[in-house]
Design goal:
The chain is α+β, with helices and mostly antiparallel strands and about 400 residues long. About 25% of the residues lie in helices and about 35% in strands.
């Protein structure tokens, strides 16, 4: 019996694994998403789109969003709050209602310029602005242009402030720190604060013994690298009542001690031990003291004692050649002076002295200098002029 012919085997169908299918679908979706993202970003990063986004954000009244969009470099003085204050003062920001914009012919491939006019609710004439966009070297996502708005019109650049050497200061409530100090002398310190937003700024300077000094300064959109925005010297500051009281008391003690020391015929060093005398002026004061003792204490007709009845003092600013802060304390003194008057040797009388007493009033001026936080005595006319006493 013949064998039946073998049945042909059917071709096997090769199936694609499900994970591979999922991966392919995912790749297609990713490619589609990338294309959508690419098209969107190309549109968004065109300079005209950046300009439109800039203007619409400007008009929205959201200063925080505009701060982020422009891309300011934050600092202690460049903040959202300070930007909002500047925008309101200089641009009437919250009242802007509409705008118009034109694009000027391209100056170069890396620079675009737009003319913008804003209308607000308070004025019939528009506020004009020139928006300049520059292509940055840092690209977005490595693929797209990055157009950056010029910030010149918003900033007062390279600002510095000069204040007394021992003082502290703040601008708009932000304290100046030691790392901002760019230059320092015996009398002044210059602080480099960097950029500030345009508009009015409040300066406060504090110095021990003086009332706080406050000032307002308006800054425009310019470079202040070659000048300080404000210079405050100690001479512009006013003494506190406590400091005036201290200087008056120092003057009173000085004059009392001066005559106590002179009447005891002690050296100037005994007087200097109790007071701060300025070193540069000390030799002249010591010479004047020695002359006062020689002429009025060691002489034949001499002062023997002083009873001080009253002191009345006033303070006033004084000029100092070394530019430090100087104060004159003028003291009016009432006193009774005792003196030894030489006796006449006529008619065989023994030579000697006769005590005399007299009342008088003198006016002395004492000058104090303020350096390195210390008040020192620069001069006093009490060393040059002895109080009045009877000599004959």
């Amino acid at each position: 019996m013949a064998k039946a012919a073998p049945r042909p085997e059917g071709k096997k169908t090769r199936k694609i694994p499900v994970p591979v299918i999922c991966l392919l679908v995912l790749l297609v979706l990713l490619l589609a998403a990338f294309l959508v993202f690419y098209v969107h970003m190309k549109k968004q990063t065109r300079p005209d789109s950046v300009a439109e986004r800039y203007v619409s954000t400007f008009v929205s009244g959201d200063s925080g969003a505009l701060f982020d969009l422009i891309g300011f470099s934050p600092s202690p003085f460049i903040t959202r709050d300070s930007f909002a204050k500047s925008m309101e003062e200089c641009h009437s920001y919250s009242s802007i209602e509409s705008y118009s914009m034109v694009q000027y012919p391209a100056e170069s491939e890396d620079r675009r310029q737009f003319g913008i006019q804003y209308w607000d609710s308070h004025s019939n004439s528009p506020y004009s602005q020139t928006l300049i966009l520059s292509r940055s070297e840092d690209r977005q996502y490595l693929l797209f242009d990055n157009w950056v708005a010029d910030t010149t019109e918003y900033l007062a650049r390279n600002c510095s402030l000069s204040i007394p050497a021992e003082a502290s200061a703040s601008i708009d409530g932000v304290a100046l720190t030691e790392d901002m100090k760019a230059e320092s002398t015996e009398t002044a310190a210059i602080y480099q604060v960097g950029d500030l937003f345009i508009g009015t700024h409040n300066i406060l300077v504090s110095l021990n013994g003086f009332e706080d000094f406050t000032a307002k300064v308006y800054l425009g959109s310019e470079d202040y690298a070659d000048k300080t925005i404000y210079t405050i010297t100690t001479s512009m500051m006013k003494l506190t009542k406590d400091t005036e009281k201290y200087l008056k008391q120092q003057t009173k003690s000085l004059i009392r001690s001066l005559y106590d020391t002179a009447l005891a015929q002690k050296d100037f060093s005994a007087l200097a031990a109790g007071f701060a005398f300025e070193e540069a002026a000390r030799p002249a004061m010591e010479q004047a003291y020695d002359l006062l003792v020689a002429n009025n204490i060691s002489s034949a007709a001499h002062l023997t004692g002083v009873d001080f009845a009253s002191f009345s003092s006033t303070t006033s600013p004084a000029y100092a050649e070394d530019h430090c802060y100087a104060v004159n304390v003028t003291s009016e003194i009432e006193y009774t002076a005792q003196s030894a008057v030489p006796q006449s040797s006529e008619n065989g009388a023994e030579p000697g002295t006769t005590p005399r007493s007299t009342s008088g009033r003198s006016l002395f001026t004492t000058t104090f200098h303020f350096k390195d936080g210390i008040w020192s005595i620069y001069s006093t006319t009490a060393l040059d002029t002895c109080i009045y006493y009877t000599r004959y």
